[in-house]
Design a protein that fits this description.
The protein has a single domain (6-113), classed as Response regulator (Rossmann fold, 3-Layer(aba) Sandwich). It is 44% helix and 11% strand. The chain contains five helices and three strands. The chain has helices at 6-18, 29-35, 55-64, 81-89, 101-113, and strands spanning 44-47, 71-75, 93-96. A three-stranded parallel beta sheet has the order 1-2-3, covered by helices on one side.
Length: 119
């Protein structure tokens, strides 16, 4: 879970843990990308608009390194052009804040369903 707002990180971490997920939180895209050397998550919930690297920047760097991590974008923006940009980025889900607990858990489940199976 990557968001530059501490209250959002706290609330979403709590919600995802209640949903049965093991959750690591990061306050920036840079911090998240650095963490991948030690642990690659099954899914990432990623804010689009953050200080430093944006969610789109993080997804682009993941793609450049051939890392395929199912992603759920979250945003407070109501810009309708984001829908197309999210699709072009190959992101599975987009949730606009405020969203319900059920919507987040469903988006994570959907994203996890797109994870390639190990052979």
């Amino acid at each position: 879970m990557v968001d530059d707002e501490a209250p959002v990180r706290t609330a979403l971490r709590r919600l995802l843990r209640l949903g049965g997920y093991d959750v690591a939180v990061y306050e920036s895209g840079e911090e998240f990308l650095a963490s991948l050397a030690a642990r690659v998550p099954d899914c990432v919930v990623l804010d689009i608009h953050m200080q430093g690297l944006s969610g789109f920047d993080v997804v682009a760097q993941l793609g450049a390194s051939h890392a395929r991590i199912p992603t759920v974008f979250i945003t407070a923006s109501d810009d309708p052009d984001l829908d197309d940009a999210v699709c072009r980025a190959g992101v599975e889900q987009l949730l606009r804040k405020p969203f319900s607990s059920d919507a987040l858990l469903a988006a994570v489940e959907t994203a996890l369903g797109t994870k390639p199976k190990a052979s």
